[in-house]
Amino acid sequence: MSAMILGWSITAAQVLLAFAMAFAALRFIRGPRAQDRIIGLDTFYVNAMLMLLTLGIRSGTTLYFEAALIIGLLGFVGTVALAKFLMRGEVIE
């Protein structure tokens, strides 16, 4: 019974994450300002990381968890670099 509930909840989470990724991609593409596009990209990579985590839970392999960790690290660095570029106009001082 609990395995069935876990399977349904993971499926529901993946469907909702797919919707969230679609809306984040829409914000990234149609954002009126650069700040909106960065927020959309930030939301997209967080949702992609969570999607990989749910795939890892479903399959039971650690490869998805490692890929999610790398996406999280690179996404954070990319968001900080883009925010610094928008604030100052340059990334490296």
UniProtKB/TrEMBL annotation:
<feature type="transmembrane region" description="Helical">
    <location>
        <begin position="38"/>
        <end position="57"/>
    </location>
</feature>
<keyword id="KW-0472">Membrane</keyword>
<keyword id="KW-0812">Transmembrane</keyword>
<feature type="transmembrane region" description="Helical">
    <location>
        <begin position="63"/>
        <end position="87"/>
    </location>
</feature>
<dbReference type="InterPro" id="IPR007208">
    <property type="entry name" value="MrpF/PhaF-like"/>
</dbReference>
<dbReference type="GO" id="GO:0005886">
    <property type="term" value="C:plasma membrane"/>
</dbReference>
<dbReference type="Pfam" id="PF04066">
    <property type="entry name" value="MrpF_PhaF"/>
</dbReference>
<keyword id="KW-0813">Transport</keyword>
<keyword id="KW-1003">Cell membrane</keyword>
<comment type="similarity">
    <text>Belongs to the CPA3 antiporters (TC 2.A.63) subunit F family.</text>
</comment>
<keyword id="KW-0050">Antiport</keyword>
<protein>
    <submittedName>
        <fullName>Na(+)/H(+) antiporter subunit F</fullName>
    </submittedName>
</protein>
<dbReference type="GO" id="GO:0015385">
    <property type="term" value="F:sodium:proton antiporter activity"/>
</dbReference>
<keyword id="KW-0406">Ion transport</keyword>
<keyword id="KW-1133">Transmembrane helix</keyword>
<feature type="transmembrane region" description="Helical">
    <location>
        <begin position="6"/>
        <end position="26"/>
    </location>
</feature>
